[in-house]
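thought: user wants a sequence for this fold. calling inverse folding tool.
action: design(structure=
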C-alpha cells in the first residue's frame, strides 16, 4: 500500500492512486491526547466527588504529590525499598 514512499517522484508528476489513498486516510485520522484527556476527566470527577472544601482539596493534592515523589513508579521493588528505608 505504501509503495510510493520508496519511489522517487518528480514534482510535476500526477499523484499515484496509493499515495492518494494514504493521504486520504491520514487526513481523516483523529488526533487525541488520551492521557491528558483522561487526567483532566479524572481530576474533574475527583473535584465533584471527594470534597467541596478547597483547603481539603489542596491538602489532598499535596499528599498525592508527595506520594508520587516518594514512589515514582508502580514497581514492587520501589515499594519494598521505600518501606525498608523507613524501618531503619
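)
observation: tool returned 88 residues.
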Amino acid at each position: 500500500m505504501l509503495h510510493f514512499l520508496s519511489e522517487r517522484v518528480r514534482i510535476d508528476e500526477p499523484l499515484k492512486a496509493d499515495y492518494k489513498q494514504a493521504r486520504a486516510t491520514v487526513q481523516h485520522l483523529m488526533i487525541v491526547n488520551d492521557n491528558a484527556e483522561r487526567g483532566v476527566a479524572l481530576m474533574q470527577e475527583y473535584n465533584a466527588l471527594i470534597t467541596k472544601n478547597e483547603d481539603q482539596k489542596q491538602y489532598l493534592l499535596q499528599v498525592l504529590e508527595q506520594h508520587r515523589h516518594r514512589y515514582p513508579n508502580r514497581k514492587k521493588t520501589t515499594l519494598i525499598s521505600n518501606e525498608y528505608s523507613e524501618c531503619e
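thought: summarizing for user.
answer: Here is the designed sequence. The two ends are 62 Å apart (CA to CA).
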